[in-house]
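We treat protein structure as text, and this decision shapes the records that our systems exchange. Below, we set out a record of this kind in full and without editing:

***
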Amino acid sequence: MGSVSPNGPVGAADRAGAADRARDRFRGSLAGLAVGDALGAPAEFLSAEQVAERWGILTEMVGGGCHDCQPGEVTDDTEMMLCLAESLVSLGDFDAEDVMRRYVAWFDTDPVDVGITVRTVMLGVKSGTGWERAARRAHEVLGRMTAGNGSLMRSAPVALRYVNEPQRRGTVALADSALTHFDPVAGWACVALGELIAAAIAGELREQLPAIAARLHDDEPRVAAVLTQAGEATREEIVASGYVLDTLKAALWAVVRSASFEDALIGAVNLGDDADTVGAVAGALAGALYGETAIPGRWAGALLVRERVLAAADGLVDLAFPTQPG
């Protein structure tokens, strides 16, 4: 995979203490993802101007939107993240077949929102295409346009599970993305987000950003360029589309310019367009940086899947920081 990975953010000594310190940020990352999803869902497919016309500045869990969500209700961003997180917690490691089985079972519930790439893959699997080949087949069916953000939005649990295993973190990020998104740029965007989340958990997101971009350059220069540009971009240079590099750039831009979790999420979802996914990615990163305790109570309390999300985060903490015998 090249030389992507840095040292993990914590060492082996005093792992019980490290787990206690990490728990707030693990919970913050997954709860932040879900909060960003629910907060942004009503603004999905609206332009920034339309968001402003409707709400002024969207700051509350209002519900509604194109999916007619309840206030605090999440979409496919959080639902697929939970499939991945719960597979990791259940098995202790990444198992592609188990993860895909969970994705298909979720798809069978007739969710309100499914991206076109994911939908094409799920329908392929259900019609008899082996899960190992379904993403390639979808790539062909969709005219080789599978660089959407549908794998990026769910990938935060990989960063948490392997926060102390940098090489494994990158390998698994690529493997999970490839289950649905054959275009490698989608996978490398997931690798980048994993590196950013690990740096945020260490409290060094802004400090490590240039080094992360440099490490990624040889493997995927387009992703590296997005990381470099996000920290310097003006609002006019940010596009919140479903293209994976646009989403990564918009979410990172919202976080690096922020002074708080709330500031980051408001900046992300008010961009409109693919607001739930930009909100989810920004929330995962901002939550890792600021922690669960920084999420406004009015948002956290409204989240309909809060207990399930926190249970998944706690399970990932236990895997990343196992209790040492003796």
Q: What stands out?
A: The two ends are 36 Å apart (CA to CA). The chain is about 60% helix and 0% strand. The first helix runs from residue 15 to 40. Confidence is low (pLDDT under 50) at residues 2-13.
